[in-house]
Amino acid sequence: MDNPLTRKLQTYVRLTGADTDRLADALGPARRIGARIDIVAEGDDPRAVNVVLDGWAGRYKQFADGRRQIVSLLLPGDTCDPNIFLLERMDHAIIALTPVTLAQISGRTMQDLRSRSETLEEAFHREMLAVAAIQREWTVSLGRRSALERLAHLLCELHLRQATIGLADGPSCPMPLTQPDLADALGQTSVHINRTLQDLRRAGLVALRSRRLTLLDPDRLWSLAQFDPTYLHHTRDHAGAGVRPREADPAAARPAVRL
Amino acid sequence: MDNPLTRKLQTYVRLTGADTDRLADALGPARRIGARIDIVAEGDDPRAVNVVLDGWAGRYKQFADGRRQIVSLLLPGDTCDPNIFLLERMDHAIIALTPVTLAQISGRTMQDLRSRSETLEEAFHREMLAVAAIQREWTVSLGRRSALERLAHLLCELHLRQATIGLADGPSCPMPLTQPDLADALGQTSVHINRTLQDLRRAGLVALRSRRLTLLDPDRLWSLAQFDPTYLHHTRDHAGAGVRPREADPAAARPAVRL
DNA sequence: CGTTCGCTTGATACCGCTCAAACTGCGTGG
DNA sequence: CCACGCAGTTTGAGCGGTATCAAGCGAACG
């Protein structure tokens, strides 16, 4: 059975037919959630592992005064932590950013899966490492990248993550986030996102309209963002057609693009 | 045997004597590293799990133009990911911020440890969840907190993390980071850190000198930082003397402190 | 058909950065 | 013992990137 979760895990390890079967069996019935609805609320007791089968979701924290930060994005094939059920209390909420299709795997089933298959165990571990690496990269973006680099980097990440699981069409892929969503993810205001996006468009680097992103000049965009895809730790090459992997040069030698 | 790693894991689960013995045996010989030296470089193949026994280290990424972001801090008892040895290539570097004492656990030994003890397995999983939660909180800080809130929040975190493993003396604890270090962790300049720190001092919230931090008014500091310690996911209460856990009120109801 | 949400643009304000320099404490070597 | 250097801290002046506030427009939607 083909689903985004198995496609994702296949990028880390080579799963056997038995593995993918077990995985497919483990997934509970699909659940449909409307856009802008909380999938999990802060303070909830997380009983099971949610897997995104379709649509985009986001983890976020919100302050009393309304400030909100999206701390990570969940794309098809992503899970809210494989171990989340160990916790008593969610320290953040998860919202459906588009209509989302979810499946659940109970904590018990999850533990079975991993104890029955070394390969699956390793796949989930690698997945957690990749998720941690993405989170670190966001930290770098928020801490040290300019508005332009920050937006460029996120667009590179989102394109590559989708290419990896077969959701990109060459240099183009879905990008359903609104500008307010991007603002909450990048720690800025939607007004500024709008202006930065126009800079990227004027520079001929990206096209973004009707919820679809196209990387018009992937090399220059990657360079501007200082995007180094190795942090995603995929062992098999899934970079979408139209985006060549960056040649292996000492990253330090390449000057940043200016607009 | 008593070491910071077992003290740390004890905050998540109750370890048996056999567990702590196995853990102590697993730790390789202590290695001493001078301040400002890279423990692990970007691009390295991580062969073993490093455990910090003493001193502070930091993960960081650096750009060609010199910009640097510290993405997380490793305090005594912290490990560079329990699963890091699965990866082929470090996507970031780790530097000793003070002189550091390290021990290593080989990947093989680590897997043994976890397969032999359910409790240890769970402890390491919970540890990874806590680390992920800290990383998310940093993302929130960098994205949405003001300079003042950001610094206050980090100081709260560092105090509590040390209190948890018995390194705090009431409201006071080691704080060996220099202002340039703080700047690289908080995504700011050392000049601005300096000024923000002065604001915190003038407000009577903290004292910080000769590498030692004292929370002079923990309640107001926590409130200013909107510090909610539950994200650290310790199941046993280790908040240091002098810092009362925040009463359970709907967080939304509490207005932020102003200076 | 009205309302809401997202996108866009303009004017202005301010937080945090840059550049520069002086000061402090401390280790080191003459 | 003093001179020196160095790293970290502190202060000042000016600038710039991003936020804020405000308004208009179009498209989706109930």
Task: Break the fold down into its secondary structure elements and pairings.
2 copies of one chain form a homodimer.
Chain A: H1 4-10, H2 17-26, E1 31-33, E2 38-40, E3 48-54, E4 57-62, E5 68-74, E6 93-96, E7 100-106, H3 107-116, H4 118-144, H5 147-164, E8 172-174, H6 179-186, H7 190-202, E9 206-209, E10 212-215, H8 218-225
Antiparallel strand pairs in A: 1-7, 2-6, 3-7, 4-5, 4-6, 8-10, 9-10
Chain B binds a DNA duplex (30 and 30 nucleotides) through residues 146-147, 178-180, 188-192, 194-196, 198.
Please explain how this structure is put together.
2 copies of one chain form a homodimer. Chain A has 259 residues and is α+β, with helices and mostly antiparallel strands. Helices cover 39% and strands 19% of the residues of chain A. Chain A is built from 8 helices and 10 strands. In chain A, the strands form 3 sheets. A 4-stranded antiparallel beta sheet of chain A has the order 2-6-4-5. In chain A, helix 5 (147-164) crosses helix 7 and helix 5 crosses helix 8. At the A-B interface, strand 5 and helix 4 of A face strand 5 and helix 4 of B. Chain B binds a DNA duplex (30 and 30 nucleotides) through residues 146-147, 178-180, 188-192, 194-196, 198.
Keywords:
Arc Repressor Mutant, subunit A; 2 domains; DNA-binding; alpha+beta; homodimer; 39% helix; four-stranded antiparallel β-sheet; Jelly Rolls; three-stranded antiparallel β-sheet
Strand order of the largest sheet of chain A: 2-6-4-5
Task: Tell me the domain tally of chain A.
Answer: 2
Q: Mean pLDDT of chain A, as a whole number?
A: 89
For the record, give the distance between the C-alpha atoms at the N and C termini of chain A, rounded to a whole number. Answer: 46 Å
Q: Summarize the helix and strand pattern of chain A as letters.
A: HHEEEEEEEHHHEHHEEH
What multimeric state do the chains show?
Answer: homodimer
- CATH architecture heading of the largest domain in chain A: Sandwich
Give the DSSP E fraction of chain A (strand runs of 2 or more residues).
Answer: 15-25%
